[in-house]
Amino acid sequence: MTLALDSLSAAQRDLLTQWLPGLQVEADHSWGLVGTTVLEVTQAGERLIVKAGGPADHHIARELAAHRAHLAPWTSIGRAPLLRHADLAEKILVTEYLPGRLVLGDPAADATETYVQAGDLLRRLHAQGGPVDPDYAHRLRDHARRWLDGPHRIPPDTEERLRAELDRWVPEPAALVPTHGDWQPRNWLIHDGLVSVIDFGRADLRPAMSDLARLAAQDFRRDPRLEAAFFEGYGPDPREPHAWHRLCLSEAIGTAAWAYQVGDESFEAQGHRMIDDALAAAPD
Predict the structure, then answer these.
(1) Chain center to CA of 193
(2) Which one, of 206, 214, 207, 200, lies nearest residue 115 by Cα?
(3) CB of 131 within 8 A of CB of 204?
(4) For 176-206, how does the pLDDT look when each residue is reduced to its tens digit (9 = 90+)?
(5) Distances (CA, A) of 17 to 11, 22, 90, 261
(6) Burial class of residue 12 in the structure, from the number of CB atoms within 10 Å of its CB (0-12 exposed, 13-18 middle, 19+ buried)
(7) What are phi and psi of 71, to 5 degrees?
(8) Structurally, how many domains does the chain consist of?
(9) pLDDT per residue over 227-238, tens digit each?
(10) Where is the domain boundary, 58, 76, 98?
(11) Are residues 137 and 241 in the same domain?
C-alpha cells in the first residue's frame, strides 16, 4: 500500500485488499476539486482503475448504475471499461484500465475524426431509449433555482434576469435516454486512432440534447467544423429551440455556481459566459 491509499476510508482499503491482494498504486488521477479518488493500480500483472467517493459523494452511485444498466453498447466494442468490483454502500468500484491519452489537450481535440467517432458513440448510448418524464423540466427549473439560492458570484442584475426567465418557463414533458452527463474531450481517450469513454459519475436518464451542452459551450463554439463532424457521426440534431434554451440556461447557472463553490475560477468564468450567451439567445 502507498500513501495514495490514505485518501480512502478504512472500509474501502479493506475491500481493495480483498478484491486485489498485493495491488500496487501506479498513478493518482484524482481531479482534486471534488471528493473522488481515482487511482491507477496494478495487480497480478493487470492494470486497473479504482474510484472511491468520500462521505458526501453521489457520483459513485451514478457511475455504478451506468455500468450495470447502460454501458453495454460501448463495453461490447471495447470503448468503455468493464466493471470488475463494486460496493455501493462503501462508494468504491474497480474497472478495467483502458489504454490511451486524454483527448483534452491532445491534437485529437482539434481533429474532426475525433468528433465523428464521439457522435457515433453517443448515438449508440442514446439509442437505448427511455421513458417520457412529465416532470423533468420542472426539476430542471428547481435545480437552477437552488443554485441561485446558494453561494455564487453572478451579478445581482443578471440574477434578477435569470429568475425572471425561470419564472416564465412553460415546462413540457421530456423523452429521457441514458446520458453520459459530461460529454466532452476530458472524458474521451484516444488510442490507435479510436475514441473511448471514461468517467460516468454524472450519468443519468435525461433528454438526449443534454449531452451536447458542454460541447456547444466549448468545442462547437470554437470550431464549427467540429459540430458538423459530430452530427456526421450522431445523426439528426435533437435540440428543439425552446427546450434547448431552458437546458442551456440551467447548465450555465449550475456551471457558474458550482465552479465558484469549488474554487475553479476559469470554469466559473466559462459559466458566466454561458449565462450571457443563453440570455442573449432566448428564442421568440
Answers:
(1) 22
(2) 214
(3) no
(4) 999 999 999 999 999 999 999 999 999 999 9
(5) 10, 7, 14, 35
(6) buried
(7) -95, 0
(8) 2
(9) 999 999 999 999
(10) 98
(11) yes
Q: Which residues of the chain have pLDDT under 70?
A: 1-3, 32-34
Rounded Cα distance between 158 and 162, Å, is 6
For the entire predicted model, the pTM comes to 0.92
110 and 87 within one domain:
no
Amino acid in position 187: N
Whether residue 118 is found in the same domain as residue 91 = no
Specify whether 124 is located in the same domain as 172.
yes
Last residue of a domain, which of 49, 77, 98?
A: 98
Shared domain for 55 and 86, answered yes or no, is yes
242-265 residues labelled b (16+ CB within 10 A) or e (exposed): ebbbbbbbbbbbbbbbbbbeeebe
Alpha carbon distances (Å) from 144 to 113, 212, 224, 268: 35, 18, 28, 15
- For residue 6, how many other CB atoms are within 10 A of its CB? 9
Q: How many residues in total does the chain contain? A: 284
Rg (CA), the chain: 20
Our CA angle for 34, 201, 175, nearest 5°, is: 135
Contact 188, 195 (CB under 8 A): yes
